[in-house]
User: Fold this.
Amino acid sequence: MTDYQFPAGFVWGSATASYQIEGAAREDGRGESIWDRFSHTPGKVANGDTGDVAADHYHRYQEDVALMKSLGLQAYRFSIAWPRILPDGVGPINEAGLAFYDRLVDALLEADIAPYVTLYHWDLPQALQDRQGGWVSRAIVEQFVHYADVVSRRLGDRVRYWTTFNEPRIFVTHGYMNGQHAPGLTDEASGPQAAHHVLVAHGMAVPVLRQNAGPDAQVGIVYALNPVEAASDNPEVMARQRVLDAQVNRWFVEPVLLGSYPDELADAPGFSALVVEPGDMDLIRTPVDFVGANYYSRIIVGNPQAQSALPDLEDSEVEAAEYTAMGWEIYPQGLYNTLKRLHDRYHPPAIYVTENGAAFDDAIAPDGRVHDERRVAYLRDHFRMAWQAIQDGVPLRGYFVWSLMDNFEWAHGFDKRFGIVYVDYPTGERTVKDSADFYQQVIARNGLPASRTER
Ligand code: FCB
Assistant:
């Protein structure tokens, strides 16, 4: 008996991102991205790993789509590499780059899998970084809107679901403020201005995407959300909790859904010098059709001295908690809390879990399989929380497991395996993990059984 029955029409999918899986970094006219430059800079990525080959999805996309079909996936969230389309960021369009995504979309549709396209999942053309400092320059707004126009003109006849940005908070804080991600800058005060340009670019791209993808188009943005909790009622800890929560959960959400930045950020570095042009906040508030929530874990604030502008999941540890290979606490309740809060506070028309999943130290067993029981448990417990959120009125329309396959986990390189499909990097060979079989059953019955033992 299925006790956690999801609503008819609920969408089950998986997610990836261009730089993390594609490889073919120098093929078919693709330009350099900031992640090519960063990963090739010694000391930036674990083991010196790069996305040059990654999971070689660029060459294996047909096999990957067949795999998705065999798992019964109904949707696939992937991103477009801007430097494949406009190698120099602006200027001549690279037809071969567009053609790749054309083929991918056609293959997905042929397999009855709905494409969910993300325009920006962090791989900015290096030329735009070199020329103008990337997102800190206002010029990028027009450049992004142009890129969005080029892609959606080409794919808009077949792609209905579009997101502008993946996790703007992460690429702004890690890319510009703490240097952990490309382009590796450590100028805390530059963050808010870069963030503002991202938000204006988002707002201006929304009508362009709608225009090019037709009346059925659904356009949204994807956020990284983590409940931020105080470990004690120490006033300094609680004050830091409020600011950190504003940075993590409200900085990019409230301009889009409410039309303003949270007051709690006024004193954070860079905000006092923020240049907001007349009309910007209205542009940013252009209505979206949905919001995507990426959820992995919570943040517990225990140390009032910690650097508040640099949110980190390891601020404080919880005794007896379980952690993934990323060192992230496994906290399914946080998914419920995140979805409920998003709905209660902001009422977006629809919500998707656009990423959720876990890294564990997977290995191929002697029987040739990958028995990732901890990932099965992780997914099951999070799916149940999503179900509960729906019971409690959250307009949750779909769920994308991160990730379809093991991939380049940014500064961690290939060490952290998030896939429900295992990738043997030397050969590119794919092996379906037990979690993929589990997911296939969830999709087939559109729900889960009540008992832990029954799968
Ligand atoms: C998210 C990113 C995604 C992946 C997961 C683990 O922050 O959007 O690319 O790295 O974390």
User: Anything to note?
Assistant: The longest helix spans residues 191-213. Residues 17, 20, 166-167, 170, 224, 294, 355, 402, 409-410, 418 surround beta-D-fucopyranose (CB under 6 Å). The CA atoms of residues 422 and 431 lie 5 Å apart.
